[in-house]
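User: Is it possible to get a 3D structure for a protein together with its bound compound? The compound here is farnesyl diphosphate. I've pasted both below.
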Amino acid sequence: MLDKSRIPAHVAIIMDGNGRWAKERGMVRVQGHRAGMEALREIVKHSDILGVKYLTVYAFSTENWKRSLEEVSGIFKLLVLYVASELDELNRNNVRVNIIGDWSAVPEDARNSIKKALNTTENNTGLVFNIALNYGGRAEIVRSAKALAEKAAKGELDPAGITEDMFSETLYTGGMPDPDLIIRTGGEYRLSNFLTWQSAYSELVVTRLYWPDFTPQEYEKAIEEFQGRDRRFGGVKC
Ligand code: FPP
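Assistant: Yes, that's possible. Here is the predicted structure of the complex:
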C-alpha cells in the first residue's frame, strides 16, 4: 500500500520506450511519442494529486539530435501541442513549468510555447514541473564549472572556497532538492546522462513497461517500491 505520508519530494522520469511501443503496433516512432505525451499528461496530474513537489522529465537529450529530422521536429511539435492543450489546466492547478537544458537551440515555435508556459506559470507555488529539453548531465556540469571559473577569474570567488552546495546552486536545478526517486521505463538499467550530479543518492526504479503504458497506477507502484528501500546516504542504519 502506498504511504501517502511518505511521498518523495522530487521524482524524475526517463520516459523510454515510445519507439518500441510504436513499432510493436506497426506505427511510426512519432506516434509513439504522441502516446507518450498522453501518458505524461496523466503523470503530471497524478504527481500533483499525490503531493510530489518536483517532477522532472527527460523529454529531449543533447544526444537526441542524432535522430531523424522527422522524429526531432515531431517531438518539438508535440511540445507545442502539449502547451496549447494543457497550459490552462496546469496554471489552474498552480503548477510552475520550468525548463532545464539549453532550450535556446530548440525550434522557434517550441521556444515560443516555452516562453508562454514559463511566463504564465512563473508565480505559481504548487508542483514544479521541470521539462528537460536539449539537456545533458555532463553539459550541465561543464556549464556550472564555467560559471564558477568566470567568477574566480574576475576575482569574485576564491577557488579554494568552492563547495558542493555552491556547485549545486549553479545547476539548472539550483534551489531544488535532488531527486529522491528516478523512474526509468523501457527496461534499461542506465541513467543516459540524466541528472548526473543530482542523482548521486537517488533511488532507481526500472520498469519494463514502455512509457506510453505507464499509468498512474504503475506510478504508485514505483513509489511503493521506493518506499520499501532503505536510504542510508552512505551512513549506517539507525
Ligand atoms: C524515449 O523513447 C523518448 C523520447 C526521446 C522523447 C520523449 C517525449 C515524449 C514523452 C513526448 C513529448 C512531450 C513533451 C511535453 C515534449 P525512445 O524513442 O528512445 O524509445 P525506444 O527506446 O523504444 O526507441
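The helical segments are 18-24, 29-50, 69-92, 108-121, 137-153, 164-169, 216-227. The two ends are 24 Å apart (CA to CA).
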